[in-house]
Each structure stands twice: as C-alpha cells, then as structure tokens.
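Structure first, sequence second, as always.
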C-alpha cells in the first residue's frame, strides 16, 4: 500500500486532530514520523498527514473545511 501526502497541518497538535478525524471517518491516516521530532515534546512546526493513495480524494474532501494545506501533486 502506497502512502501519499494529503495535507500539511500548521503544527503537530492540529495534524493529530486531523488524523483522528480521518480515522473516525474510516480513512487510515498518520502523521509523517520525521515531522514530529522535537525536544519540546510536541513539534511546533508544520507536519504532513499521510493516507493510503486510494483514500486521497476522500481525505482531501474531509479536511477541506479544516484549513488543510494541500501538497502540490508534483511533491508527493
């Protein structure tokens, strides 16, 4: 299963909320592991949310109302 970037959250807390929202809607999702590294405990920097490629359209539609920044097609 190929995982693709679907959105960029402004910080780790927002990314985790988006992942929770997606999972509750039946979309497997995760925060990119490298984005959450922080000596402060929670990364205060943008974090990318990934989903399996087949779920990408549904995930983008669900996150559209939550300020999700899409990843340009050529950067996936």
């Amino acid at each position: 299963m190929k995982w693709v970037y679907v959105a960029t959250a402004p910080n780790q807390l927002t990314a985790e909320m988006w992942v929770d929202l997606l999972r509750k809607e039946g979309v497997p999702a995760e925060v990119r592991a490298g984005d959450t590294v922080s000596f402060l405990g929670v990364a205060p920097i943008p974090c990318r949310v990934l989903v399996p490629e087949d779920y990408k359209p549904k995930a983008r539609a669900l996150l559209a109302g939550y300020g999700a920044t899409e990843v340009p097609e050529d950067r996936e």
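Margin note: Residues 12-24 form the longest helix (13 residues).
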